[in-house]
Amino acid sequence: MKLAVLYLFTHMLYSGDYLQVRSKYLNHDTGNCLLSIFDYGPVGFGESNQLTGEGFQYPKGINQTLYYGSLACGNSETYVVDAYYEHQMEDHDWLTVKPLGRHIPPEFGLQEYDCIYNDSGPTSPGPKGLECYQYSVADADTNCDDFVIIEYIYTNKGPEAIDSLYSAIFMDFDINNYTDNYGKTDPSLRTAYMQPSLPDENPTVGIVYLGSQPQSPLPVANLSVIDHGIYVYPYQGLPDRIQWRFMNGTYSQSQSNRQYDWSIVVSVGPFNLAPGDSQHVTFAIVGGLSNYHYLENCRHAIEQYDTMWPGVAEGLPLELNQGLRIGPNPTRGRLSVTFSLTQTAQITISLFDPAGRMIASLHNKKLSRGKHNLALSLPEWIPSGIYFLVLNTTEKNIARKIVLRR
Fold first, then answer.
1. What are the φ/ψ torsions at residue 248 (nearest 5 degrees)?
2. Beta 66-76 vs 79-82: how paired, if at all?
3. What structural domains does the chain harbor?
4. Domain named Secretion system C-terminal sorting: which ranges (predicted)?
């Protein structure tokens, strides 16, 4: 197991008329685990040399369980956007748009961070306008202190549809002697996980797919262990073409067949993004002192997510001439607006105060026929209060009351 070297790198960013000092990474460390978060796709460490970040420690300060991890999103072997290792170096496909910082005001009053990045990084397979808003949260509550939740909201900022996308997290957990590790999966809890060896389950760490609220859950495409002897060592990394086959489920192995060096992946999809559309995907990185304890903590993570995140409004009409869906409400500034169009139309979404004054224009774009989900952010200068969100087409206006709590 390679040990992490603590390396805190700060730099100055100029934004408008103020200077902001930010760290290269931020730690979620309020509970029993510690996870380093970055603003360009990696999870745990910024690079596989572990010079930046503190990995995933479970329990915190005792066991370093991670070698390297990354988010990945793509729709073919020629379009995998990630920060994972391949050919002795990491991909840098994501480019930071909004640097990592504390989510202010916090949605839940917890340890919350956010950032934005897109697919135009220096090693990008070819930018399509895919943007990712990353939001992460850790809770010190007794039933919630063994995991960190990471939500990814993908938005198509490009002019053309991006179809058949999959979203995945790859984690190369190295626990104690990494050549003795043993991986498993549990479809009932949508998780893949790793333990130190076949007889030793302490600690057990892994990934769980929580859902896509306020949208319906995506299909789980793959829960798999990855044999380094077959897929990593021969290539000195995990090439995109192999990574893609794990993302879409072509390659899949539910459990290790021996003690060895393994990685794990949890992947969901496919989903389509028309121009302007968004898709929510939420995972958790979880730890436990045994398989049983780990799976219990996965249940706690799913329960917390289902309780705190805005739920899917089942049974509500989706046609624009009947209604639309907005959540969360009350909101701290982020909104998901879902509706369907029977034909291509110019859509404007604006925010009004109770006196009928327009406060902000949130969206103004022509959208194609079909279902749309827009991720909107209310400007930070708008104070707490009651407002009306108005969706307008050439034929109809629809207003919904929302409550903003800063």
1. -90, 0
2. antiparallel
3. 10-308 (2.70.98.10), 325-404 (2.60.40.3080)
4. 328-403
